[in-house]
Design a protein that fits this description.
Elements (H helix, E strand, L loop, with lengths): L1 H13 L5 H6 L6 H12 L2 H12 L7 H23 L9 H7 L1 H34 L3 H49 L4 H10 L17 H17 L2 H8 L4 H35 L11 H8 L5 H33 L15 H27 L6 H24 L9 H19 L14 H24 L1
Length: 483
């Protein structure tokens, strides 16, 4: 029923997508509340839905993850007042057109390629993890589960463009939050009237502790959380085309700003709900222990498959499908717009009408083909993992998230250079990008006992600042040498 509803909504919205602007940026007509729902649903993957409860399910687990979320809120505030206005200066279809105007086409295309590669690989792995649950619950092969998820999502994504994606995201947000609340209610019922007692015990064990003011680069504390979260949010919500495409679809810059600013507190509430589900699972399995100990990331999935009754299981499955399809649809939509506007079609700034005059249908067709192509590429990534048993999925996911942070940090570093009143030449930019990747790799992948080792969550911040500093420094040297 959920899959059918998704397709019907996609087709209904697709009737209104009649121009290229409608397809790529929704005709600049989407309200803030639709964009807010889409932003939240897009950044919430099935990995988040299934794994975040494991942070508090673990014996030593607690709410300290919210320190990173506090950084997310800070980063979105900075992005809303610093980066967002630049995307509305002229006719924009892509985040990276800003870089073209400031640093030339080489910077634009480099940023676009980095986005396309990391987005395709990381979201292909998210697709695989979601298919695991779908495969177990409807008793089908992994190949069929992966293919089903991809095909249904691509149908509405390619047909209606960003409007279809955004409104489906809003539907998916309602469904997966409802699924999480319903799962929490079932967990409370499973505690057999002892819920308040278990919550008191959880508080005694420090499971509700969220604030650590003791500074260390290698541990979870509020200072690292604020820095890492702010830079991560600046990179993902300030320069990533998957989010910027939504801002450009807004009725006005104020609608885009409202959606971005409100998404921070909303995410705080959402993650608090997921963490509370984890504490509920910890209490439930204290009362109903399994024959073998559960890994923290396995607890919620195990509860869904083995403890939920028929009906409740279906609702929660729809919730998992919703977060997966939201991420996949947003990923392929933003990848298609990036490919078409940054790598395929040459546009002049501010030339909205003339840029596609005489080739509107061919460019729209190219957008749809690109959407399907990137979806199929993610399908291939997921199938490779499914067909290769020796792949350790959890470690691959951690590596991919770190690499994604590297790429996002490089792009953010180039955006940071827009505040420098100096022309940065391509050689200096390239030096900054490569040098930042090398330096950050040495810090993140250093031996565990090394004093200079940093958390992987800091990769985006270190890469961004290092990219900007090295590029600016080399450009300064080049200017002085020419003089």
């Amino acid at each position: 029923g959920y899959l059918v509803l998704t397709l019907l909504l996609g087709y209904w919205v697709a009737r209104k997508a009649t121009t290229l602007s409608d397809y790529l940026v929704g005709g600049n007509s989407l309200p803030w509340y639709a964009l807010l729902g889409s932003i939240i649903a897009t950044e919430t993957s099935a990995v988040t839905f299934l794994s975040v409860p494991g942070l508090t399910f673990a014996d030593q687990g607690n709410f300290k993850f919210l320190q990173l979320v506090a950084g997310f809120i800070l980063g979105r505030c900075i992005a809303a007042y610093w980066l967002l206005p630049g995307f509305f200066a002229g006719c924009r279809f892509s985040a990276y057109e800003v870089l073209r105007d400031r640093f030339g086409r080489s910077a634009q295309k480099t940023a676009s390629v980095l986005f396309l590669v990391t987005r395709t690989v990381s979201d292909g792995l998210r697709l695989y993890l979601t298919a695991i649950v779908l495969s177990e619950m409807i008793h089908c092969s992994m190949t069929l589960a992966i293919t089903l998820l991809t095909v249904v999502t691509l149908v509405y994504s390619a047909t209606g463009g960003i409007k279809s994606i955004v409104w489906n995201d809003c539907l998916q947000l309602i469904i997966y939050l409802g699924g999480a609340v319903f799962a929490l209610w079932l967990v409370v019922q499973g505690c057999e009237g002892q819920w308040s007692g278990w919550m008191a015990r959880a508080a005694e064990q420090g499971k509700f502790d969220w604030l650590d003011t003791k500074f260390s680069w290698q541990s979870e504390n509020i200072w690292v959380g604020l820095v890492a979260g702010a830079f991560l949010s600046l990179a993902t919500h300030g320069t990533d085309q998957m989010m910027v495409q939504r801002y450009l679809s807004a009725k006005s810059p104020n609608h885009a700003k409202a959606a971005l600013l409100l998404s921070g507190p909303f995410v705080l509430v959402q993650f608090s709900l997921f963490l509370l589900v984890g504490i509920g699972l910890w209490a439930f399995y204290q009362l109903h222990p399994t024959t073998e100990p559960l890994r923290k990331d396995q607890a919620f999935a195990h509860f869904i498959v083995n403890e939920m009754p028929i009906g409740a299981r279906g609702i929660t499955l729809a919730a998992i499908l919703s977060v997966a399809m939201s991420t996949l649809s947003s990923s392929v939509g933003s990848s298609a717009s990036t490919f078409v506007t940054d790598l395929w079609v040459t546009r002049s700034t501010g030339d909205e009408e003339l840029s596609f005059q005489g080739q509107r249908w061919s460019v729209e067709f190219l957008c749809k083909v690109a959407t399907v192509t990137f979806g199929l590429l993610q399908l291939v990534v997921a199938l490779i993992v499914a067909w290769t048993p020796q792949f350790q999925v959890e470690s691959i996911i951690n590596q991919i998230l770190t690499v994604s942070g590297f790429a996002a940090g490089v792009v953010l570093g180039v955006f940071l250079l827009t505040i420098v009143k100096m022309r940065i030449e391509p050689p200096a930019l390239l030096f900054g990008m490569v040098g930042a990747l090398v330096i950050t790799s040495l810090l993140v992948f250093a031996p565990k006992d090394a004093v200079w080792r940093i958390q992987g969550t800091l990769a985006a911040g270190v890469t961004a600042t290092t990219t900007a500093f090295l590029a600016w420094g080399l450009q300064k040297i080049l200017v002085l040498s020419n003089k």
